[in-house]
């Protein structure tokens, strides 16, 4: 008998599944043993959504789908599968039909917007020297250095990929705003959260990397979604 839903975690730009490390440990402490973290290729929204759907389809029973940063766009595109019971957005993009992460950012550029640079192969990077202040200023210097060196750059065109049918229009949703976010403007987060009419919005005094700096609070929100949609 499955007592708790599976938790499927979806990372965003400039990171991988390991960005969820502190959340995974906290979930495990609280008795969740069916935890999955998608490793997205970051090559296109279609590719990333398909990779996430494949992960969901491998999971028996209900799924609470959690997305950080660009991972919010991925769960918005992939979250309509019938066993997905809730969507949880962590400092994340939540595009509407025809919207892209790039368009949303251009409307309200974040503080670190100019630190994002392309390379000659068509990938976008956060400048290593700017990574700490742009992505994770509330983490220690060593942890920020590791994130900067191991960052996973998206193909630049992924920023322009648009959502087709947003799952948050049909699925109950939760949203965490990072008030000190330099990668997605906090007011943009508030705007996206408000229009999806989530069950709950939590604001944390945190950087974009709230999943790493505030894992207990992030898991509290995930548990809120679990409790509201289980049984």
UniProtKB/TrEMBL annotation:
InterPro entries: AB_hydrolase_1, AB_hydrolase_fold, Sec-Metab_Biosynth_Hydrolase. Residues 7-220 form the AB hydrolase-1 domain. One of its GO terms (molecular function) is catalytic activity. This is Pimeloyl-ACP methyl ester carboxylesterase. It comes from Streptomyces nymphaeiformis.
